[in-house]
């Protein structure tokens, strides 16, 4: 406490001088205090720090580096440098002038290592001065630094500098002051009041300020001291396993170790006499009962330490209390912190649910995009296209190839989307004309033939592009995330994919319900014979439908490629989920596909939430769920109804 | 009164004769028991191929006869392999561990040996306990029973669920694919109890037969595979002939009509599906000791699709077609991908078959589906002057997958 | 005389369209009955309900002496209970021989394991031959049924129906696509069948129905419009309007 007062007094002295000192020559100051800087001592360093702080921004940078143990001496010329780690080497700047000195290997610089006392003084001096700096940017930076690692000393400094002309910064200071009060104030009442002032605030920094108060330590004590702030007393057997509890006692030296099989074995091995241990032949020792007999015999002869028996263990466990004790001694403070943390939990839960929903929504959009083309070909034509995944892959590679020619990411994306559509549309039409057309009414054979196409395309992609992943870089404006608060955020790419999914939903509805093509497609779906007799060529419609479905797969490929690695297996990663989406949703209905994608997306995220460490298990359970779901709704969520469906 | 099965269907006799000649021939040329023209690894490859052929026969029963395009058959195959692999691994590790523990001054207890075996096997997945599903792993009889029971039960439960709700056609295919994918993903986890993606290894070492060299062992397994294939072929031929086969093919062609005849279509499908799963499981149990290692990648959906591809190329609805398809395609595949096929230099580009075999396979598969729906066995039909029946009118039934140009098994 | 099949108050709708509307119907043992009605009157849907293919939204279908509800049974169980059905389009297993088709239909245990161990005996072979003779296909026993003519397929299907030995036969437009001579034969056969079985014939063709000379039920818009002898129902003004009023 005294040192803080000292520093404050010092600062009070220095600050008025700072206007004059602004012009002071840093190099001069360095030269003057060179010895002090190289070998600082807590007692004498204060004026040095003050003098450096007074020289302005470069001085501050020097102090910063000094405090961070990044100030050093270049061995070649003994120049004082600021070293920034850069890979394995260091990037040097002249401490006095800020001039760039380029990189240097680590062994070329002797870094100064001021002790913690000195560093405390440095940071206090910096923070204190910066908090009242006339430049709002520096004040904001200082506050930022303070919020990252504050301490009791800085709480005092902050309270000195609460006034701020900038209302935002003033509010920030207020908030920080309360946060630091929670952690470092000496008055429990003030701390509790500060906690309560936050209400149900869910920010990370508030929760982070509460957590250290609530940290506990597990101890085993014979009597509970009156002043201990006990969080919880653990019942042996239910709250803490017997073995773990006894192990605590053994670790603390409060009880003798139990005899483990390993220890027993080792001990017995040391006492083999003439092929016997304690009168038991060694041959017989491949049996636990015989070993216990031998050990007991050794105990009887006083040759070995008696091991704790089961009764002794029980007695020891009964004698001790097993406690979780708060590091914070004041019970009122911990109670208030606990209450405050509980208050935030509900809101945090809700927000996590919101965040999870956003994740699930974006996953659902991806599945929807991947599945919509499949839904069109499967729903409208009854054709399973196993090569659908490879069309997605083709779309992604199209995006990659376009980026090789057009370096501007935005323009390349604008070019890639229609180009991917065109490429896969053409591939789809070719596949329909060459293969599928001959296999209508034989869906299982279509499935296998398109599978043949799928493996051929996959290998072809491998031969052309190699096996390593190719990057498809998204434009800069899609980097980053839309952040609502500490918990809820969503990346722009995912938003873009969501929007893309909506666009395609709209486009599909428009084509199907508002265009001649859609009318003809619906006619062919419902009654090909009748449609043909009315002059609609089912051949042409099938070709266009298949092309359309494939084209959308290509666009989905570009979208997926933006966040996933583009490899020849990209498509097969999505194909099963796409099938599931279509099957679960119900064939022949875009809303069914939407519902299927939503169900699968939300389900997958939901299962992942229950078991976040294990995405493999999540996928397993999801597929199991779908298999069972099909039991109850064999025709999907939105099933085709009517006479046709009954007969089909 | 009635002629025995093999005489009613001479093709069975021919098949068994060819198989016998092949088996004896390979033995005579083998390193272990003959002239050494065929290397041990080649014998193993041939033995494995026979197991795959057995799986293909089962696939043909399910697909060619009952019309269920199951894309999850390799799940049963791998499960059979896992079940036998568990015993092989435990028994083998036990021998090694007992050997090393015997050098200690104090003889090990049963619990210590067990512990050491568990640590040895499950150390890679960070565990030193036997998972519950290994409770029978110490018993050969127990694990052999599981080879049959586990694939059988899985097929029974899955089939019951799927057939009961009348999922069929492509839906069923996708669902079976999902089943094998789910199982593969599950097995990839370290806490699945089957060593995660490490799988089971060292299966080529048969406990108690350490003295027998691999040259001889490979021939033993080759014979076992050949016998299994022969018996499996007979069994499936028997099932597929007679009234049961008649009903099964009727289900394939028009299952609604079969219901109106009073047959419970679901039970028939279930029997066929489960039987095929059991046969496939047995094939797997013979395959993996020859392969030496099994891991969850074996269950990847693509493996099951390949099985369907073999059957289709060989010719569906003909058991010998399935065998021919499996043997021809898998042997060709290992010839091409093994780098033994000569590269083709086109001047401007050299075709390396390692890279292009997959493309060739895919395309030839499309071509077979399009132009030779009866596959390789169509050639045999042409030789035997079998012609498809003169067909009038409509396709065979509302199940559009029904075959249009297929004859009954001869 | 108690009814063999008693259908009471069934309704079924598809997507809001009421295909069957509060329909009641009963048929006694050894009765021949014709059901007539214009297209969309619900004749096929009615058969679908009786055979278990379609579930009604409401109503009851009772069967036999013990009044078993057919609604609780599936298609195969209903068929085993003794309801045989002949489809409008001949549906035989074209890939299999006439003998195989008939053998499959022959009344015998239907369980998969019983069928697996089933062996043809002299008796069954004789029965198959007799059935083939009855429908005039004895010369074609070894032929694939896919090679038969349309009329022969119709006959084969009737043969399969007979092989099932059902108590009730549902026959959907048996005369469709038959030559005049074949129609004559069919009429005779149906009348003969009705001596031992209950037979329901769904038919379009008034001439054919007249030749059957039996009680007639007229369906219209999913319910019974009239019932009685053909002369009786054709005199009914509502029937005339339904049949003639629409041209």
UniProtKB/TrEMBL annotation, chain A:
It is found in: Cell membrane. InterPro entries: ABC_transp_permease, ABC_UrtB_bac, ARM-type_fold, BCAA_transport_permease. It is a multi-pass membrane protein. It comes from the Bacteria. It holds the Pfam family BPD_transp_2. One of its GO terms (molecular function) is transmembrane transporter activity. Residues 1-21 form the signal peptide. SUPFAM superfamilies: ARM repeat (SSF48371). GO terms for biological process: amino acid transport. Keywords: Amino-acid transport, Cell membrane, Membrane, Signal, Transmembrane, Transmembrane helix, Transport. The chain crosses the membrane at residues 360-384, 413-431, 492-511, 543-563, 575-603, 615-632. GO terms for cellular component: plasma membrane. NCBIfam families: urea_trans_UrtB (TIGR03409). Belongs to the binding-protein-dependent transport system permease family. LivHM subfamily. This is Urea ABC transporter permease subunit UrtB. The lineage of its organism: Bacteria, Pseudomonadati, Pseudomonadota, Alphaproteobacteria, Rhodobacterales. The gene is urtB.
TrEMBL record, chain B:
The chain crosses the membrane at residues 12-33, 45-64, 71-90, 140-163, 170-188, 219-240, 267-287, 293-312, 319-336, 356-380. Keywords: Cell membrane, Membrane, Transmembrane, Transmembrane helix. Pfam families: BPD_transp_2. GO terms for cellular component: plasma membrane. It comes from the Bacteria. GO terms for molecular function: branched-chain amino acid transmembrane transporter activity. It is a multi-pass membrane protein. The keyword Transmembrane helix applies. It comes from Paracoccus limosus. This is Urea ABC transporter permease subunit UrtC. Its main location: membrane. The gene is urtC. PANTHER family: HIGH-AFFINITY BRANCHED-CHAIN AMINO ACID TRANSPORT SYSTEM PERMEASE (PTHR30482), SLR1201 PROTEIN (PTHR30482:SF4).
From TrEMBL, chain C:
This is Urea ABC transporter ATP-binding protein UrtD. Keywords: ATP-binding, Nucleotide-binding, Transport. It comes from Paracoccus limosus. GO terms for cellular component: plasma membrane. One of its GO terms (molecular function) is ATP hydrolysis activity. InterPro entries: ABC_AA/LPS_Transport, ABC_transporter-like_ATP-bd, ABC_transptr_urea_ATP-bd_UrtD, BCA_ABC_TP_C, P-loop_NTPase. The gene is urtD. PANTHER family: CONSERVED COMPONENT OF ABC TRANSPORTER FOR NATURAL AMINO ACIDS-RELATED (PTHR45772), HIGH-AFFINITY BRANCHED-CHAIN AMINO ACID TRANSPORT ATP-BINDING PROTEIN (PTHR45772:SF8). Residues 5-246 form the ABC transporter domain.
């Amino acid at each position: 406490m005294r040192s803080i007062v000292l520093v404050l007094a010092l600062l009070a002295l220095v600050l008025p001088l700072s206007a004059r000192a602004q012009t002071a020559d840093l190099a001069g100051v360095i030269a003057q205090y060179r010895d002090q800087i190289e070998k600082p001592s807590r007692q004498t360093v204060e004026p040095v720090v003050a003098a450096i702080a007074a020289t302005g921004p470069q001085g501050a940078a020097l102090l910063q580096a000094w405090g961070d143990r990044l100030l050093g001496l270049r061995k070649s010329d003994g120049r004082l440098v600021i070293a920034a780690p850069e890979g394995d080497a260091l990037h040097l700047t002249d401490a006095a002038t800020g001039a760039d000195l380029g990189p240097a290997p680590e062994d070329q610089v002797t870094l100064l290592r001021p002790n913690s006392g000195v560093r405390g003084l440095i940071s206090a001096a910096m923070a204190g001065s910066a908090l009242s700096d006339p430049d709002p940017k520096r004040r904001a930076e200082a506050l930022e630094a303070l919020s990252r690692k504050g301490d009791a000393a800085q709480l005092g400094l902050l309270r000195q500098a609460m006034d701020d002309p900038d209302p935002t910064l003033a509010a920030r200071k207020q908030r920080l002051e309360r946060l630091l009060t929670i952690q470092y104030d000496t008055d429990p009442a003030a701390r509790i009041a500060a906690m309560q002032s936050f209400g149900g605030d869910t920010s990370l920094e508030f929760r982070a300020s509460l957590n250290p108060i609530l940290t506990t330590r597990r101890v085993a004590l014979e009597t509970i001291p009156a002043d201990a702030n006990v969080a919880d007393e653990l019942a042996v057997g239910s709250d803490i396993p017997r073995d773990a509890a006894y192990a605590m006692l053994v670790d603390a030296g409060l009880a003798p170790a139990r005899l483990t099989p390993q220890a027993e074995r080792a001990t017995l091995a040391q006492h083999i006499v003439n092929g016997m241990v304690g009168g038991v032949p060694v041959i017989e020792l491949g049996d636990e009962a015989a070993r216990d007999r031998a050990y007991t015999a050794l105990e009887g002869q006083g040759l070995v330490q008696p091991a704790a028996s089961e009764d002794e263990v029980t007695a020891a466990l009964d004698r001790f209390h097993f406690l979780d004790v708060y590091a914070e001694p004041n019970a009122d403070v911990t109670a208030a912190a606990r209450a405050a943390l509980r208050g935030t939990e509900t809101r945090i839960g809700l927000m996590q649910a919101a965040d999870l929903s956003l994740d699930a929504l974006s996953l659902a959009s991806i599945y929807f995009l991947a599945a919509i083309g499949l839904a069109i070909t499967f729903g409208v034509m009854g054709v399973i296209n196993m090569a659908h995944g490879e069309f997605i892959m083709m779309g992604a590679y199209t995006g990659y190839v376009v980026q090789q020619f057009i370096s501007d990411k935005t323009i390349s994306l604008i070019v890639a989307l229609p180009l991917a559509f065109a490429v896969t549309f053409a591939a789809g039409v070719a596949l329909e004309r060459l293969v599928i057309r001959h296999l209508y009414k034989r869906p299982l054979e279509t499935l296998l033939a398109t599978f043949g196409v799928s493996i051929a395309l996959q290998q072809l992609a491998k031969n052309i592009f190699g096996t390593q992943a190719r990057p498809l870089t998204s434009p800069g404006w899609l980097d980053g995330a839309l952040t609502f608060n500490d918990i809820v955020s969503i990346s722009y790419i995912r938003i873009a994919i969501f929007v893309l999914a909506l666009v395609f939903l709209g486009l599909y509805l428009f084509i199907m319900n508002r265009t001649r093509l859609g009318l003809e497609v619906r006619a062919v779906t419902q009654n090909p014979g009748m449609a043909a007799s009315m002059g609609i060529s089912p051949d042409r419609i099938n070709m266009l439908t298949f092309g359309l479905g494939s084209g959308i797969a290509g666009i989905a490929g570009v979208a997926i490629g933006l966040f996933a690695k583009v490899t020849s297996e990209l498509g097969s990663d999505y194909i099963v989920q796409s099938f599931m989406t279509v099957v679960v949703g119900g064939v022949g209905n875009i809303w069914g596909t939407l519902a299927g994608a939503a169900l699968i997306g939300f389900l997958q995220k939901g299962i992942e939430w229950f078991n976040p460490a294990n995405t493999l298990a999540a996928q397993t359970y999801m597929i199991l769920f779908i298999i069972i779901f099909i039991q109850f709704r064999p025709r999907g969520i939105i099933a085709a109804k009517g006479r046709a469906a009954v007969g089909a | 009164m009635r002629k025995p099965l093999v005489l009613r269907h001479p093709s069975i006799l021919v098949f068994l004769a060819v198989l016998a000649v092949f088996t004896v021939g390979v033995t005579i040329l083998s390193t272990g028991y003959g002239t050494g023209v065929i290397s041990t690894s080649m014998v193993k490859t041939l033995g494995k191929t026979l197991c795959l052929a057995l799986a293909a026969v089962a696939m043909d029963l399910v697909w060619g006869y009952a019309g269920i395009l199951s894309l999850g058959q390799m799940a049963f195959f791998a499960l059979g392999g896992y079940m036998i692999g568990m015993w092989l691994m435990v028994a083998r590790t036990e021998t090694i561990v007992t050997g090393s523990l015997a050098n200690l001054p104090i003889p090990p207890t049963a619990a210590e040996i067990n512990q050491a075996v568990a640590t040895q096997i499950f150390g890679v997945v960070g565990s030193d306990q036997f998972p519950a599903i290994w409770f029978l792993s110490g018993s050969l009889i127990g694990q052999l029973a599981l080879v049959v029971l586990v694939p059988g039960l899985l097929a029974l439960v899955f089939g019951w669920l799927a057939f009961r709700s009348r999922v069929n056609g492509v839906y069923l295919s996708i669902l079976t694919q999902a089943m094998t994918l789910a199982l593969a993903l599950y097995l990839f986890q370290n806490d699945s109890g089957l060593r995660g993606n490490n799988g089971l290894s060292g299966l080529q070492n048969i406990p108690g037969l350490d003295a027998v060299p691999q040259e001889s062992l490979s021939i033993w397994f080759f014979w076992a595979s050949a016998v299994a294939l022969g018996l499996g072929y007979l069994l499936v031929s028997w099932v597929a002939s007679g009234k049961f086969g008649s009903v099964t093919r009727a289900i394939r062609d028009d299952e609604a009509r079969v219901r109106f005849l009073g047959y419970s279509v679901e039970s028939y499908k279930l029997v066929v599906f489960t039987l095929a799963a059991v046969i496939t499981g047995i094939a797997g149990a013979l395959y993996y000791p020859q392969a030496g290692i099994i891991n969850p990648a074996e269950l990847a959906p693509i493996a099951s699709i390949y099985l369907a591809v073999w059957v289709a190329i060989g010719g569906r609805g003909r058991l010998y077609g399935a065998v021919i398809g499996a043997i021809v395609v898998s042997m060709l595949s290992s010839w091409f991908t093994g780098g033994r096929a000569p590269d083709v230099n086109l001047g401007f580009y050299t075709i390396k078959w390692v890279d292009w075999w997959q493309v060739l396979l895919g395309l030839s598969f499309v071509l077979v589906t399009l132009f030779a729906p009866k596959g390789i066995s169509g050639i045999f039909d042409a030789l035997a002057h079998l012609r498809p029946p003169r067909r009038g009118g409509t396709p065979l039934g509302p199940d559009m997958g029904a075959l249009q140009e297929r004859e009954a098994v001869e | 005389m108690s009814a063999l099949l008693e259908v009471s108050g069934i309704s079924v709708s598809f997507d809001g369209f009421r295909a069957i509307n509060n329909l009641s119907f009963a048929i006694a043992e050894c009765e021949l009955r014709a059901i007539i009605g214009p297209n969309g009157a619900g004749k096929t849907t009615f058969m679908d309900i009786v055979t278990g293919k379609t579930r009604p939204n409401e109503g009851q279908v009772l069967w036999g002496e013990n009044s078993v509800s057919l609604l609780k049974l599936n298609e195969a169980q209903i068929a085993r209970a003794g309801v045989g059905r002949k489809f409008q389009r001949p549906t035989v297993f074209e890939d299999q021989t006439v003998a195989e088709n008939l053998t499959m239909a022959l009344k015998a245990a239907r369980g998969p394991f019983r069928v697996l161990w089933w062996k043809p005996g002299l008796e069954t072979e004789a029965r198959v031959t007799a059935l083939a003779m009855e429908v005039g296909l004895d010369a074609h026993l070894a032929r694939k049924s896919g090679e038969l003519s349309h009329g022969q397929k119709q006959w084969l299907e009737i043969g399969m129906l007979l092989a099932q030995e059902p108590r009730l036969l549902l026959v959907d437009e048996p005369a469709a696509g038959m030559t005049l001579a074949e129609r004559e034969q069919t009429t005779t056969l149906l009348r003969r069948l009705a001596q031992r079985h209950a037979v329901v014939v769904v038919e379009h063709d008034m001439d054919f129905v007249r030749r059957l000379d039996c009680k007639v039920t007229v369906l219209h818009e999913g319910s019974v419009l009239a019932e009685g002898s053909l002369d009786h129902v054709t005199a009914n003004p509502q029937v005339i309007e339904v049949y003639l009023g629409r041209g």
